[in-house]
Design a protein that fits this description.
The chain is of the alpha+beta class. It has three helices and two strands, in the order αββαα. The chain has a domain of 47 residues.
């Protein structure tokens, strides 16, 4: 049943229900209202870089918070 549930996606802007494959073919932009769905960094790189040309570097780097920022709810 999980496979069937992953076939469809609903646009949070206009409510249009569409096939995930159609959304992916349209570069994660709603077919009805042009809402841009969020995509991961990896997906963005696949869209803009030529196949086989991107080489990830410094993958083990992690961010730090040397100033200990706090927004009133949580630290960054």
């Amino acid at each position: 049943m999980a496979e069937i549930e992953n076939l469809w996606v609903k646009c949070p802007e206009c409510g249009t229900v569409m096939y995930v494959s159609d959304l992916q073919e349209n570069l994660s932009v709603c077919l009805n209202c042009d809402y841009h769905f969020r995509i991961s960094a990896k997906e963005r790189i696949e869209l803009i870089a030529d196949k086989g040309t991107f080489k990830e570097q410094f993958a083990n780097i992690i961010s730090t918070d040397p100033l200990n920022f706090f927004d009133g709810k949580e630290t960054y």
